[in-house]
What we know:
Shape: elongated
Number of helices: 29
Amino acid sequence: xxxxxxxxxxxxxxxxxxxxxxxxxxxxxxxxxxxxxxxxxxxxxxxxxxxxxxxxxxxxxxxxxxxxxxxxxxxxxxxxxxxxxxxxxxxxxxxxxxxxxxxxxxxxxxxxxxxxxxxxxxxxxxxxxxxxxxxxxxxxxxxxxxxxxxxxxxxxxxxxxxxxxxxxxxxxxxxxxxxxxxxxxxxxxxxxxxxxxxxxxxxxxxxxxxxxxxxxxxxxxxxxxxxxxxxxxxxxxxxxxxxxxxxxxxxxxxxxxxxxxxxxxxxxxxxxxxxxxxxxxxxxxxxxxxxxxxxxxxxxxxxxxxxxxxxxxxxxxxxxxxxxxxxxxxxxxxxxxxxxxxxxxxxxxxxxxxxxxxxxxxxxxxxxxxxxxxxxxxxxxxxxxxxxxxxxxxxxxxxxxxxxxxxxxxxxxxxxxxxxxxxxxxxxxxxxxxxxxxxxxxxxxxxxxxxxxxxxxxxxxxxxxxxxxxxxxxxxxxxxxxxxxxxxxxxxxxxxxxxxxxxxxxxxxxxxxxxxxxxxxxxxxxxxxxxxxxxxxxxxxxxxxxxxxxxxxxxxxxxxxxxxxxxxxxxxxxxxxxxxxxxxxxxxxxxxxxxxxxxxxxxxxxxxxxxxxxxxxxxxxxxxxxxxxxxxxxxxxxxxxxxxxxxxxxxxxxxxxxxxxxxxxxxxxxxxxxxxxxxxxxxxxxxxxxxxxxxxxxxxxxxxxxxxxxxxxxxxxxxxxxxxxxxxxxxxxxxxxxxxxxxxxxxxxxxxxxxxxxxxxxxxxxxxxxxxxxxxxxxxxxxxxxxxxxxxxxxxxxxxxxxxxxxxxxxxxxxxxxxxxxxxxxxxxxxxxxxxxxxxxxxxxxxxxxxxxxxxxxxxxxxxxxxxxxxxxxxxxx
Length: 878
């Protein structure tokens, strides 16, 4: 075969290979274009879902703004939000018409969105027609919030499904891209080898210029193929797509979307590195430090963090980044990066897809900022109320306390009358403060209602004793009547029921000069599990004009302008009563005739229960004054009037106490003297009660009982004191009997535990098993004790609540749960009680026996926790 024929054969073979390459490239280019279309399609679906959620949130925001302010601007925003919501759903539905699962999920989103929109419409109509309060009450039931949460969850699931599809499609696209490049590269190399070999072996004398021209032609063909690939695949999307052909980030592809987003032309970017031209160095440095902490390794500053991650096995990463545009402006992008590897799994580059989210991020930040501002405003209000309560309760503590001390002495009638008037005035002011705090709790949604077994007959009997004296002072007949068919015991909130009736009866007595006040309860409706009881307060007082009946339940509203001057009060009592009734699912009404009296009535729903046990929450264990005289007491109080009161109170009973005027002085005294109990004020100069308690417990490692004496009356104050290491809490003004009872109870238990500790007898706990299990590791043992001290009070509170409600299932669950807790600490006596309670809970009977066992459980648990506090101190010292 002649050399010329060989050249022709080699040339034909090369052409054949190039044709195969072109065919394969064209086929894969179409496939890659399809993959890119699917990526773009998936992003569109996600975008539509996010737009739907934003629209619904806009509707909710407009509804909330209109309810709160009543301004037409929000109503317009609400209507604007409704304009294209259906088109969004229609667009999204068209995009996912071939995905049955996503269609079902979108249908659920649309159904829930329709319910949410219907609810918003109902709220807005209610606000427009009936005003703020009915709309607020409807919103406070939580239906709108639940629907919104459901929509968010459904949209999140919908987007998550699309993201999973996106990941699969990106992976397929990546694989196809790699395969195409690999085949093209191998085929070109093969072709070149054939040509070079042919030229080398058979055409050594062939003109070098011809060979160079052929090579140039081949290179142009490669460039043309790559250009076709870029134009058809990469430039068909608005997203910025940037690829690199090296791990160091040298840019090889910069599509039209990237040019439009960043302002650069491809030729200005290709060949440069992404960190040096597109990224903020400070941001890369910050991410490097974060990655160093996350991976616990040293990452050099300025190194592309995903380059490090990819070497550790990461294949993809999605993060927010700041991109620098050509004009110097900064935009925020959501950057998705995928690692490109060769057949040997070596990194050959990266594929980045960026989406401009600058505007959406600004919108989110604006929402967050608005929310933070609202929270700050609420915090300022709560702080003001807490400070107001503290500042007023502090002098009230002295006023009521000293009048109590004076009333215990032998006084002349006129002197006693004067002092009693002072006390009554102080208690009236205290009630006003409590009313303001109740309004605050209701407004902030922090007011809670409990469910306990209660007897309406017993509550009426207690109220009769409590309010009779007030009625007698005005020569009024006060009577209480309970219908015989009302169930003996129901589930409800006895404290709130008592508060409502006291408000109504107090009003009736205040506005009745002669005659009577009748309080009655009737069964209005009874079903298998529930019943409705009507409560009626009828007086023969001055009555209310017809034109004022609609406003008597409004805050600070009273029937006449002179009412406050003649009768006193703030106008909050009836408003509080109304809201307490309605928040429990009831209703309240009033009928009146001027000069003939007034009838207030309210209806409350109750759950029926089979057993008739009602816990006696008024029962006290009492105290022995002689025992209190023996105590070494430290009173930490900075207010001179309160110091004078507490010392005068103790002097009445021949009780001695040391005084510290701030926490710092108290800590010094404790260092040099052992006390049986500390009565700790909260707000003090130099060092407040919280700081002093923390220092006593942590630095001094002292377990002396501490009782907080606080003028703060905001919710959560007691829990905060207990959490910081105090044993109990009493609010100011101080009730003398309750203070002495707490002092007696706490010190008696503390002395018994310390005596047990010293004698090593009658201890509740035994750490032998724990020490063995932890192999004597003191840090691990102390950690287990810390968990025990945190867990037991929480479980005990849940168990106590279950016993009060006769909730046998919860009694069984928590009795079983607490057994393992105490078994670790060797609390066999407590375990026996819990085992018996679990058995009775399973039988669903003998609630009286469970109550008795629960009382013993609480006493033993208190002792066990005190023992553990001492043990923890021992292990921390060692």
